[in-house]
Amino acid sequence: MITPPRKSWPWAKVLPLDHGPWAGDVRALAARLYPARAVEACAALCDELPCSLLQAVPQRQYEFLVGRWLARILEAPCGRQGRAPLWPPGLTGSISHTRQLVIVAVAPMGPRRCAIGLDIERLDCDTTTRTSLARCFTHAERRLLCAVADGELLGFSAKEAVYKAVHAGLGLQPDFLDAEIIAVDSRRQRLVMNFGMGVDAQLQVNFSQLDKHVLTACELDEALSPKTWLDLASHVDAMSSEQC
């Protein structure tokens, strides 16, 4: 069993994470994975897996287990609601992973913080993956991103962070084109997006690099007021009613 949490683990290594693309009260941890030990880790910790992952490949199970281990170290043990983490009362958080790295961030909820979204992507991903990213952007977005190193990978990660935050805050599942990148500031390491779905709202996504990965984070408390979220929820409810 993972409980009680231990910062030393035979199946992953915690990485120093002194800063990241988020506000000062966000707590985060990362861990480097050892894919060759995935099967061993899953066999030792199979009791920690939810029923929905019992038939998953060992690598997916391994990434899940390491994410939950990091959450416990952060004193934010999370359950599972569908495919998303279910955080303790008063906290919001996000988990992202690749085959090499898992990162978890948690933060207190407040009057203006609905949720946070976090994403990591490998900078050394293959050509096929990079080619497939083009469908996630408009022509205008691609023109903006081509001026930035690893621009489309950064843009994809930023949209993933936004969608995680939106799903956590409202339970919505936007399309990639529902958030349009309108500005990229490499010096300040941030992007600005227009969020669609019938609401004129701007979202800010901050970014950095960690262990050969691009790391992006979106905090809705900085981007949308509570009133805007209520307007968005009302709009989505109205759209759903019209479709019934």
Can you walk me through this structure?
The chain is α+β, with helices and mostly antiparallel strands. The chain has two domains: 1-109, Ribosomal Protein L22, Chain A (Alpha-Beta Complex), CATH 3.90.470; 114-236, Ribosomal Protein L22, Chain A (Alpha-Beta Complex), CATH 3.90.470.20. The protein has seven helices and eleven strands. A five-stranded antiparallel beta sheet has the order 7-11-10-9-8. A four-stranded antiparallel beta sheet has the order 1-2-6-5. A hairpin with a 2-residue loop joins strand 10 and strand 11. Helix 1 (38-44) crosses helix 2. The radius of gyration is 18 Å and the shape is globular. Mean pLDDT is 82; it is low at 225-244.
Nutshell version of this structure?
The chain has helices spanning 38-44, 58-73, 127-132, 139-145, 151-170, 220-223, 226-243; strands spanning 12-15, 27-33, 79-81, 84-86, 91-97, 101-108, 116-122, 179-185, 190-195, 201-210, 213-219. It is of the alpha+beta class and 244 residues long. The strands form three sheets. It has a five-stranded antiparallel β-sheet. A four-stranded antiparallel β-sheet has the order 1-2-6-5. A two-stranded antiparallel ribbon has the order 3-4.
What labels would you give this structure?
244 residues; alpha+beta; Ribosomal Protein L22, Chain A; 11 strands; disordered C terminus; 5-stranded antiparallel beta sheet
Order of helices and strands: EEHHEEEEEHHHEEEEHH
Number of helices: 7
Gap from first CA to last CA: 46 Å
Low-confidence stretches: 225-244
- Major sheet: 5 strands, antiparallel
CATH superfamily of the largest domain: 4'-phosphopantetheinyl transferase domain
Please state the CA-atom Rg, rounded to the nearest Å: 18 Å
Average residue-wise pLDDT: 82
Assign the CATH architecture of the largest domain: Alpha-Beta Complex
Task: Trace the largest sheet across and list its strands.
Answer: 7-11-10-9-8
CATH C-level class of the largest domain: Alpha Beta
Going by helix content, strand content and strand pairing, the class is alpha+beta
Number of beta-strand segments: 11
At the fold tier of CATH, the topology name of the largest domain is Ribosomal Protein L22, Chain A
Estimate nothing, just give the exact number of structural domains. Answer: 2
Give the DSSP E fraction (strand runs of 2 or more residues). Answer: 25-35%
Helix content percent band: 25-40%
Described by the principal axes of the CA atoms, the overall outline is globular
